[in-house]
Amino acid sequence: MKKISLPEKPLIWMFSGQGAQYYQMGADLYQNNRVFRQHMDDLDKTVTELIGESIVNILYGAKNNKSEAFTRTLYTHPALFMVQYALAQTMLAEGIKPDACLGASLGEYIAAAVAEVLPAKDFLTDVTRQAMLLEKHCPKGSMIAILANSALYEQQPILFENSDFVGANYNEHFVVSGSEAGLNKISQFLLKQAIPHQRLPVSIGFHSSLLAPVEFLYAEAFVNRKYQKAKIPCLSTMTADWRQQFSAQDYWLIARQPILFQQLIEGLKKHSPMARYLDLGPSGTLATFVKYNFTENSDVEIYSLMSPFSSNKEKINQVTAVLKTYRHKKNDGEKNMKAYLFPGQGSQKKGMGKTLFDKFPQQVEQADEILGYSIRDLCLNNPKRQLNQTQFTQPALYFVSVLHYLKELEANSLIIRPQ
């Protein structure tokens, strides 16, 4: 990784790509935060002119709830851009500024927009046009996240014969992409082998050979932009390095080339070992990935702002308070604040929370009553491989995180709230 000048503890903003989206993402911010709503509405006009539909209406429509799959690329591409860019502007309005921006896949466009490489509306226009090309010319496809070492991909012909390797996010997590038929075969194999995996909510096989029909169309469609030098250093998961410049060809390369997230984080650990990471994605996925690239006893600071499971407004207030306190510290002798990190989708595994269920029987009983099934049995035994299904994964992750938090409070003999 090239060496560039950054503060001793740089704040790195991270932006997610396809697979992190869900209906109603950012809904409470849209209702309660003037800056967020203003940018969402402003960007929505750009998309409406292109496709004749309002992304805001689709995203926050009363009939569309979080549990329903939000997969159509024509909607998810601009929605992911709009929500994360609006959130970035919300944080800037709070006085929180990044020292660098990191984008994963589609997130690279958002990072570049925040760095003012192009006006946000121009990037959003191109992202939407990209979605239109993909839907028109590419066959249906999907992606699977697999909780296993990426060496499995080369070891099992059923994997490399039926999919393309997208990338490894940490040692026990990688993603493949391909046709529905090919991924169905892979899912059956993974189920038989009891390997945890999850089908991502996408309708296109991003980063795979299925995108071949649009390669030359991309070259023609995105040639008239004048890209400026980034005002904030940008990190690319396509190269696992700093992005020196942006070009029309990158629209194709970002969508087609593998995602080198794990390699990029390894490079950052050497470049800026005391870096702080702030995930602006809708699910906190990248924060989870970063966490698992560090050892358990590492004191790395990782924050996320959004989650399908909690109030984004409250979470943003908490993280903003922590970051502002850091900014205003005058010396190292001041008391540090403690922030708690809770993992998102993709971190589930059989046996999670094993030591906690007997410790908090009252909470376990309440959870069983609410859910209508045994949360202990789900987490420890994974009956019928239900931990691969979102309707079971989400409450399981939420509840185990709560138990870990209660254990932390008990260990400190305090009943406090995270700062």
Explained architecture:
This protein has 3 domains: 11-139 and 210-328, Malonyl-Coenzyme A Acyl Carrier Protein, domain 2 (3-Layer(aba) Sandwich), CATH 3.40.366; 142-201, Malonyl-CoA ACP transacylase, ACP-binding (Alpha-Beta Plaits, 2-Layer Sandwich); 361-411, no CATH class. The strands form 2 sheets. It has a 6-stranded mixed sheet, sandwiched between helices. A 4-stranded antiparallel sheet has the order 4-5-3-6. It contains 17 helices and 10 strands. The two termini are 34 Å apart. The chain is globular and about 60 Å long. It is of the alpha/beta class and 419 residues long.
What's the layout of helices and strands?
Layout: E1 11-15, H1 27-32, H2 34-51, H3 55-59, H4 73-93, E2 100-103, H5 107-114, H6 120-137, E3 142-146, H7 151-155, H8 157-160, E4 164-170, E5 173-178, H9 180-192, E6 197-199, H10 215-221, E7 234-236, E8 241-243, H11 250-256, H12 261-271, E9 276-279, H13 285-291, E10 301-304, H14 312-328, H15 361-371, H16 375-381, H17 390-411
